Amino acid sequence: MDASDQDGKRGYPWNVTAQNSRRRQQVGRLIHSIWTGDCGDAGLAAPYFDGRLDLLGLYQTFLVDQVLVDDDEGNNCFTFNEEGKAYFEVEREHCSTLTYEQFEQSYMRANQPVVIQGLARDWKASSDWVHQASDGTVEPNLLYLQQHFGNDLVDVFEQSQAGFSASRPIRRKMTITEYARWWEQHRVAGETQLIYMKDWKFLISHPKCGAYQCPHYFQEDWLNMATKNAYSFCYVGPRGTSTVLHADVLLSFSWSTNVCGRKKWFLVPPELTFLLYDCFGTKLATHLHSDVHDGMSCRFPGLRVARKHAYMLIQEAGETIFVPSKWFHTVQNLDACLSINHNWLNGANIQNSYENFEKEVLALQSAGEDLSDCSPVAADAKLLWSVIATAISSGSVQMQDMGTILAIVEAGVDKLNLYRYIDGGESEVKRVRELMREQATGSVNQ
Fold this sequence. Notes:
The protein is α+β, with helices and mostly antiparallel strands. It contains 15 helices and 15 strands. The chain has a nine-stranded mixed beta sheet. It has a four-stranded antiparallel beta sheet with strand order 9-14-11-12, with no helix packed on it. A hairpin with a 5-residue loop joins strand 3 and strand 4. Helix 1 packs antiparallel against helix 3 and helix 12 packs antiparallel against helix 13.
């Protein structure tokens, strides 16, 4: 079954089911507030033991199970991926045969994942940043990174155990030198605690190093153009380190290249996002198997269904994965890994970013809350506007996306009073509006 067939069969029933399930999650949130009162999750103990939590889980997933019916040919509408059966596969392409136009139409604008081979073959990082370990495997060269970038301060995440877990990692800071020392100690002592170095903003600190080149498929990148590469990262982690279930910042695209090592990915299509939350619709699972591995089947009843339609892949060294907008994913390092990762926005996914932002604002307004300048939603507003304004000012918006950008700006200003959170306020909005109209008029006249 190709991607278009999958989308066609998923489309109608899942859209209807998602709407109904969101209504049921609203009921779940009300029940949560009644059960917990002022004592938080401690108030869930009694509902857990007397079976009320199980009944709420059945209530939340009832409609989901109802749409899993056979089609006219006697085949199930979806390929069930119970444990022991295959997940959906992510397509693989090679950069020597995949044109930009094919990538744009079949994957980027279709919002479908793909693995592209061969992009990192000539990178400097592919030779200098890795070395052969004593056991013959290729792993990150921490000595090289320490010698050249040892004073860089980076975010690291401490895990209490290898693999996926119900607990979220603890974030703190280390220098590259401190991380390299921990890495060697971990290798010698075999510590069970793991530390994953993430979000090293290498390009900001070393813009002229030339360790790698952004592949041409991903260069229409308004996000990093607006933020001067603030969303370009390097990740380094030993075997067993992992990333919790999440969607990327502003529902952006992302690409990730394994310079060395293998990663195991699980990806969930956007129309099934509602299945990843608990029966109250308030808490996102930390990984796709929380109900099985962490004994939370009654708290996360939707994960069983989500797994049936998830994609799974083993990403090999040298491969690059394109993760589409709104696809939740969770990742585990099967070997010692070093990867390059960028989040990015352009005309193909900026609408998703705005719609999510609008939903957050309207939810706050319906709750009677106002956006303070220091709130996370206000920060999203400033970032989103910066991305749009930079794209317009630089002439980077394709004509096919101009209508989308115009609609976003008009809706954001008139409906959400977006200008309140923008440096320069109304005068800045006016400047960008005029520039957009000039570009749109000029493109039409040409």
